[in-house]
Amino acid sequence: MSAQQELLPEPADATAAGPQFKDLHPAVRVIAAGSVTAAAVALAVLFALMLAEAAARYLFASPLGWNVSLVERVLMPGAVFLALPWMYACAGHVSAGLVYSRLPSSVQTAARVVTLIAVLGSAIVLLVAGVNGAASAFALGDAPPPGSSDIGLPTWVWLSLQPVGALGLLAVALIDAPRFLRSGEVES
Fold first, then answer.
1. Contact assessment for residue 163 and residue 145, using Cβ atoms and an 8 Å cutoff
2. Would 128 be classed as within a structural domain?
3. For residues 18 and 183, what is the distance between their CA atoms, to the nearest angstrom?
């Protein structure tokens, strides 16, 4: 097994990404692997933080206070937006496969074109809106007031999670477009 194959493992559950996951472009697989790793780290930290908060609150009667801000501003958006490339690569999204598989070939082709346009358009909207939000926050020096219960990160840091995930989705969708337009999404 080559070093590259070790860096790009198949999903643990073959039904999660289907047998065609290995047929995706290597760059798509790398971006997807980085995406799912980042989202998994966000979820693991969220889990550990919730345990720590419960222990602090109920065992020591001293809640953390800043944990809600970290969860709602960094960890949950990180888990959602950073997972976008992975969700595209493993077809882990809402699908109409039951209907799609019964459509004539020409209609399936048209549906793939419309779907790709929708994915690319959505990724561009998320990217532009996220960059605008993060750039505005950076330009204004927006940050929580000192001594507040908010996590002490400049606002642009956590706002940058959206455009990073959207950029990954856009890259994965563009790289995968020729395969997707030929054969559709990865099937389980």
1. no
2. yes
3. 14
Q: Is the pLDDT of residue 34 over 70?
A: yes
**Contact assessment for residue 186 and residue 89, using Cβ atoms and an 8 Å cutoff:** yes
Whole-number Å distance between alpha carbons of 52 and 40: 18
Q: What is the mean pLDDT of the chain?
A: 84
Residue 188 lies inside a defined structural domain of this protein: no
- Percentage with pLDDT > 90 across the chain: 49
Rounded to two decimals, what is the model's pTM? 0.80
Under 8 Å CB-to-CB from 59, ≥6 apart: which residues? none
Domain that holds residue 127: 20-183
CA 69-75-78 angle, to 5 degrees, is 130
Domain for residue 3, yes or no? no
Q: Which phi-psi region, left, alpha or beta, contains residue 67 (left: φ > 0; alpha: ψ -120 to 50)?
A: alpha
Q: Which three-class secondary structure state does DSSP give residue 155?
A: helix
Which residues touch 146 (CB under 8 Å, ≥6 apart)?
152
- Has residue 157 been placed in a domain? yes
